[in-house]
Amino acid sequence: MLTEDARSALRSSLRARRLALSVAQRMAAADGVLGSLSQLAEFQVDERIAGYWAIAGELPLHRVVADLTRRGQHYFLPCIRKQRRLAFARWTSGADMQANRLGIPEPVCAAKDLVVPGMLDVVLVPLLGFDRSGHRLGYGGGYYDTSLAFLRDRTEPESPVLVGVGYAMQEVDSIESHAHDVRLDYIATENELIECKAGQA
Q1: Residue 48 and which of 8, 9, 69, 180 are 20 to 30 A apart at CA?
Q2: In which band, very low, low, confident or very high, does the pLDDT at 200 lie, cut at 50, 70 and 90?
Q3: For the domain 4-195, what is the CATH code?
């Protein structure tokens, strides 16, 4: 069992590894992850796809957004609400943005226009690390796990389908699962789309 100090050290190591990537490597990964996501039927046809605004070296999703826009699908970005919960606002290129309390840009949106996670079809989830069983190492804030808690006990993918997005080098052998963690259905890297199954090595 990882101690909190060890978990924090792993986060720091993975963050540093990600930040060391060049701009060219990140742009190449953006192309690759679009190819991986294109293997997922829900990504190709479902109407409401949520993602994230890439910060701190996260894998950029600009190619994903362009692809969804071309097909007429709707793209959503997370907005922080009370009690560590996320709602989602529809976003299009050039729309007004504002920094939330963590300094992350989010769309300027009236509360009545926000969408709760259960209304989405697919959520592309940022991460620091992942394993092939669908366990995700995030930033420690618990926003996604709290907001998606209604999916915690599922045995098969439900709506929304959860897809972790990261670089292949963010994979680790195993990430210890906590009781409050919500397991991912898939992982999309620049190299492959991984279907996550409990206990998968």
Answers
A1: 180
A2: low
A3: 3.40.50.10420
